[in-house]
Design goal:
The chain is an alpha/beta fold and 515 residues long. It has 18 helices and 16 strands. The longest helix has 18 residues.
């Protein structure tokens, strides 16, 4: 039989809810969360089922207990090649009390064949005999699907990482993705199901999932603390007065990421002259460059948007002045000559021929040759920053020779919900009560983009634009102008975003005042 397809045919009588799964029910339409690229349904929709959903919840509860260091008596074993799987997992008390299953525990085992052996156990761990005709019942599918889930978690690195994250921090959106990806992976797999007594761990199974997870947690906890460093800044006399005025002075809503603290001192000391920051859109890469400059008293002479402004005249050009044609230096050249910082935003959007001067500039004996023939030597206080998004639409792979000239390359992770909340509250105070709902939409769209590997991006910047526009026309209408455009005119994606936005409550309830 095909367990994943069979799972849709069985549901508990008079109880269609998927236990511990965010209120979803058997055959719930979850299309607004996710549609797998291999979806073959006639309507192209994502439908959930009770048996698979509860297998996800059952497995996540076991793994979550390990990650949260809660006491749990269950065990999962596999061999080194992950061909054999065996488990003995207790059923939590609340699962029995709510009628999900009558068993106190389940055991299951599979090897390299297509046979899955499984059984239920009583309160003493003794095998419960069952009529073979009852094998298709929803509760009996639970150990079978759990075994397949554990196999996928262990053998597919991406799915395993997503499942561990879900076990730590469950959400409806990630549940739908895990459910659907599991179904799509196993939907056509045929197995022989054998309900029979299973005893101890087979000799082939020597690797414990619990021990592996605990070791991983111990290693993470044992990571050394950040090395203390002495804060270094530029003295005031390092730059001319007119350039000192270009040191960024940002409001308190912007904070330097802690991971960049030591880098600031390295930049000021001259050990890190060229720094590349990369990461998803909206992670504050350019802002981080400015915060570094502010922290160490470094004038920011120019910020160049490579997708629009970078051309052959980046270092300066000849311009008419009265009856003469004179060469006018750019602020990039002034920074090279007198010291200061420049930031090249989205450097991998630029045409390679317009970046060729960086190879000589960032060498040990850095210099540039201007169009007027002058050679400008790099000032000791010149610093070069660049930002980029990797793998985004319209970007290019950065030349390896240039990539190797960066002294430090830092990946900035996505902004946390706390950081986004702080930013939105500071910039658009009127949206404060709707921020949790906006974040829910944000994460559901991100989950769909990531799961379907779509070539589009949503960032905190889109949320800010949405909040600003909502001041004038409300969140539903404002989303049409600020959130839907991320779909880049892909009609099916636009419709999906509309459904996600429309599924939330946008009217803030106010307390009624007494007459």
């Amino acid at each position: 039989m095909k367990p994943c397809k069979a799972a849709y045919k069985f549901v508990r009588e008079e109880d269609k809810e998927i236990y511990k799964c965010f209120g979803f029910r058997h055959l719930s339409d979850a299309t607004s969360y996710y549609v797998h690229r291999n979806n073959e349904s006639f309507k192209g929709t994502t439908t959930l089922c009770q048996a698979i959903g509860e297998a996800v919840a059952f497995t996540a509860e076991y793994i979550g207990d390990i990650l949260n260091q809660k006491e749990h008596t269950g065990e999962v074993y596999t061999d080194q090649k992950q061909s054999y799987f065996w488990f003995d997992l207790p059923v939590p008390k609340d699962w029995r009390e709510n009628g999900i299953t009558r068993a106190f525990g389940y055991r299951a085992y599979s090897d390299e064949t297509s046979v899955i052996r499984f059984c239920a156990t009583d309160r003493y761990g003794i095998y419960l005999k069952s009529d073979p005709s009852d094998l298709m019942d929803c509760a009996k599918l639970l150990p079978v699907l759990t075994l397949l889930l554990l196999r996928l978690i262990e053998t597919d690195e991406e799915y395993g990482a997503a499942f561990l994250e879900f076990s730590r921090k469950p959400s409806a959106a990630s549940f739908v993705v895990l459910h659907e990806d599991f179904y799509q992976y196993y939907k056509n797999n045929d197995y022989i199901l054998s309900y029979r007594e299973i005893l101890s761990v087979p000799k082939e199974c020597t690797e414990s999932l619990r021990e592996r997870l605990l070791t991983m947690m111990e290693n993470n906890a044992a990571l050394p603390e950040e090395t203390s460093y002495e804060a270094v800044t530029f003295p005031e006399e390092a730059f001319a007065p007119e350039y000192r005025e270009l040191v960024p002075a940002l409001s308190q809503e912007f904070e330097l990421p802690p991971m960049l603290g030591a880098l600031c001192s390295a930049v000021a000391a001259g050990d890190m002259r060229a720094v590349l920051l990369h990461g998803p859109a909206g992670t504050g890469k350019t802002m981080s460059c400015k915060l570094i400059c502010q922290q160490i008293g470094l004038p920011l002479m120019d910020t160049v948007n490579c997708s629009e402004n970078l051309d052959e005249f980046i270092l300066g050009k000849f311009l008419p002045e009265g009856d003469r044609i004179v060469f006018k230096e750019s602020f990039v050249t002034k920074a090279i000559r007198y010291g200061g910082a420049v930031v090249f935003e989205e450097i991998n959007f630029a045409r390679p021929q317009y970046l060729s001067f960086l190879n000589s500039l960032l060498d040990d004996n850095g210099f540039v040759r201007l169009d007027n023939g002058e050679v400008v030597r790099r000032h000791q206080n010149f610093r070069f920053f660049a930002t980029m998004n990797i793998g985004y639409y319209g970007t290019k792979e950065l030349n390896q020779a240039l990539y190797n000239r960066f002294n430090a390359i830092v990946e900035l992770s996505e902004l946390s919900d706390e950081a986004i909340t702080k930013m939105l509250t500071a910039r658009v105070p009127t949206c404060t009560k709707q921020i949790p709902t906006m974040l829910s939409v944000y994460h559901r769209i991100k989950t769909k983009i990531r799961a379907e590997e779509l070539d589009i991006v949503i960032s905190p910047r889109n949320l800010e634009n949405w909040a600003r526009m909502a001041v004038y026309e409300g969140y539903l209408t404002a989303a049409e102008k600020t959130i839907l455009p991320i779909a880049r005119n892909e009609r099916s994606m636009e419709e999906m975003i509309r459904k996600i936005v429309a599924s939330h409550q946008w009217r803030v309830k106010t307390e009624e005042t007494a007459p």
